[in-house]
Structure formats: C-alpha cells, structure tokens
Amino acid sequence: MEQVSVAQRTPVRESEVASLNLGNCLSIALPKGRLLQPSLDALAEAGLQVPSMDEIDRRLIYTTGDGSMRFILARPADVPAYVEHGAADLGITGKDALLEGDWGVCELVDLGFGRCRLVVAALQGAIAPDGCGSEGAVCKLPLPRSGHTLRVATKFPAIARRHFALKRDLCVEIIKLNGAVEIAPIAGLSDVIVDIVDTGRTLADNGLVPIEEVAQLSARLIANRASLKLKSTVIHQIASALCDRSRSI
Ligand code: PRP
Fold first, then answer.
1. Does domain 2-114+218-247 have CATH number 3.40.190.10?
2. 236 FRET partner, CA 20 to 30 A, in 24, 54, 135, 209?
3. How far is the CA of 50 from the centre of ligand 1 (A)?
C-alpha cells in the first residue's frame, strides 16, 4: 500500500477549516480518550504515518506538511457527526456511538480493538432473587425503589430505550447522564444503569453487578457516503488494510 507521508504537523488556522475536506486531502476523525492510542496504532500498521501520542498536545487537528491528510481529534460520540456531515471522510469510534445515534454514515470495518460490553447493572443488594420474574432476562432486575417505574440512568438513552422497549409490562424512565453513571444507584437517582463495562473494575468498586448484556462493542471504521465514492481508492486501501489487521487481533 502506498504510504501517506506525514512529514510534519502544523496547526490549522480557522480560515483553513472550510477547505478541510476538499480536493485530494483525506480527513480522518479520531476518538479522544482510551480509543486514541489503539486507533493511531491501527492506522500506522495500515501504512499511514500518524502522529505519535508524544506529539499530541491540546490541539485538535493535525495535518501533514503536504496537506494530503488531516486528523481531527473529537469526542468518540461526536466522531459520527464529523463523518456524516463531511467534515471528515473517515472516522474511528466505538460501536456504542453508532448505536446511540441515527447516523447517515457507512460502517466499514470492525477494528477488533476497544472490545467491551454495554450492560444493565444494579447494586448487588438490590438484585431480585432468581426466579422472581416472568422471564429469564427480567427476573434479576431490582424492584423499583419508588412507584412502579424502573429508573434507568445512562449515557446512552436511545440504546437503553430500545433495550427496555423489548420488555413488555415494564414501565421505564430513562435518565440521561453524561458520565460517572455508576453513582446514580448509590445516590438513589436510579434503580439500574446502562453503561459500558471494560475491565469491570468501576462496577465492582461501586458495589454494582452486571445483570443483563445489552450489546457487545468494539471500535469501528466509518466513512462519509460521498467520500466513499469520490475517494474510493484510498478509502478501500485503508479499510482493506485495517480489515486484514483486525482479523489477526
Ligand atoms: C467508562 C464507562 C465506565 C468505565 C468502565 O467510563 O462509562 O464508567 O469506563 O470501565 P471499566 O469496566 O474498565 O472500569 P469512562 O472512563 O469513559 O468515563 P465516564 O464515566 O466519565 O464517561
């Protein structure tokens, strides 16, 4: 595969942003946070010369010296927006971000890293004993602390709403939080949470246990629909290399 040279990185001025995705420049939105390092590793192994973690500072756009490639650092949940609206040709983000929104993007590759689960979890002491419910998936849900409505705190209201909609006869209130969701049952804000479990340590440290799996997650490569046609050769080269790599993970 042809190597894309990133000889140097230069800050992008505001006036340049409007032309970010024009011409032959390939723009890739990358997720800040825990997926950033494995995303850079994957792109590097796919033949792209990406900035190293040491080079990354507070700037959010890194561009090649020849302007052929730009990397936009965004919140994982925002990566699909950059890609859908054409500010980025490609993006890497978690499957959770894709499931949560109704995005007009193409999902190209399961990248094989960032594997974790989205689960329903509750305080250990609140879990209903096995056999209390009418069906296996419901029987461990705790009894609502107030009234007959099960309160669900989550960063993923759309996913949670879809998950609980499958449970007939269960009245659910979804409470949208932006982080540190594990606090909600402890503070009495919710009966359960729907959240990501990676190592399981955050749940355990807060006395919570997973009671249902909602989805299995991993990092995905996504593409802008128009870019997929207009820049098909380079995008398919990158996607193919990342696909080969993911099979070996
Ligand atoms: C995520 C997730 C859990 C935690 C799970 O939060 O929402 O809180 O990681 O990881 P673990 O199973 O390895 O403990 P994140 O670190 O992204 O922070 P946030 O809660 O502020 O969103």
1. yes
2. 54
3. 26
